[in-house]
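Students often ask why we bother predicting the structure of a whole assembly rather than each chain alone. The short answer is interfaces. A chain on its own may look different once its partners are present, and contacts between molecules only exist in the joint model. In this exercise we take two input lines together and write out one structure for the complete complex. Read the inputs first and try to guess which parts will touch.
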Amino acid sequence: MNPAVPTWAGVAASLALVAVAVAIAWRQRLHLAREIVLAAARAGAQLAAVGAILLIVFQHAGLAGAAGWLAIMVLIAGQVAARRARGLPQALPVATAAIAAAAAATMGTLLALGVISTQARVVIPVGGMIVSGAMAATAVTLTRLREEAAAARPAIEARLCLGLPADRAFAPHLHAALRTALIPAIDSTKTVGLISLPGAMTGLILAGVSPLTAIRYQIVVMYMLLAAAALAALTAARLAGHTLFDDAHRLRPLPAPAGKDQR
Amino acid sequence: MASEEAALFSLEQVTLRRGGTLLLDQVTCQMPAGACTAVTGLSGAGKTTLLRLLNRLEEPDAGRVCLDGRALADLDVLALRRQVALVAQAPVLLTGQVLDELRAGQPDLGAQDAASLLEQVSLPAAMLARGTAGLSGGEAQRLCLARALAAGPRVLLLDEPTSALDAVSTHAVEQAAKSFIAAGGSVVLVSHDTGQTRRIASQVLALRDGHITPVKEPP
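Now the answer. The structure tokens for the assembled complex follow.
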């Protein structure tokens, strides 16, 4: 294998492309030149730092270090997903638990079946993809659940008034939120290779691996992302379904549904 | 006031505050069984919230609400809501078919029983096969009342049930309430319509500034 990876000199040469962007911003008086330079510098510094840390983890930490790294990713992803679902009771523990459950189950299956190696250099990037997919599905699920619960309060309370327990009164709305959360993962699984060449496959091809070998990895990646999204969405929906109601099967007060999600 | 033995609901020193407003201020009152108690008051006085206390959609901040002398908090809440059915002011339909609507809380309800429920609210049995999308406001409200009756409750909580209805639907709802009482049931009615409270209620309670005053005593 002869990986076609740029040298550091090549990376420095690619700064010419940043200069093109800066030149356009300057010529068009967009007042963005400084921001472009800072963004480019920041991207370089962040990636260099992550690269250095990953190098240390890959060489010294082993599977335990990789698991620790993934745990930190899960905590950060939980914060991000919970921020989207602001106003939902217990959003942070629910989001974190959903992402953790999805990551643990998906990663555990891949490792137990021997589909991927237990080396840190494999576990961390694959785990990162899983956590990222689980985070996106969790954020959409919780946001939709909050909106459904606030907007459909009259219908939910009408079911509660018929003596239905909270889970049955909320079931139609929970299913609607789950469907919405899973559509992106299903659509990207359906169109993979047709509309986009996904990241893992692109990376392997750039690194000199044969396309027929690269697709094997990509197939596993798509299947694991589908599972991670489904598990995260289901776990988030089940947990949030409980926190939305109190012990007397009453829908808790929620912020009024806003026209647009807050940024 | 009704005697202690006959009280269906009794509120004991109930205080309820919502959104910074004191809706009920240490309220003590009784509502008799086998009759209609009407609750009147200005908009925003807390009439709907009072009704929601009676099936535990709301919880008092202090004091207690009892059914047959037992605190609601000690009863199974799901069984309570099947016994004490609430019909909201605006009809909320949950399904696409009239028969499915009647089965929303009672999946085993037979077609014969469903037809009988429609008759109780003066709707034709032939409506069972219809979709709910084309129903008028009056038909939808009567269907909600029939849906509430499907579980065989002993108490009906009616929240301004005819405020947006025409005379025909209003008469049908009132007749259904009277028949329900005649069959041994009890009704708590929130209404602005003094004519309606006069026609149906044997006790009228006025809610104002957090306090309840009886304006018509039960016989």
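Check your guess against this: Confidence is low (pLDDT under 50) at residues 259-263 of chain A.
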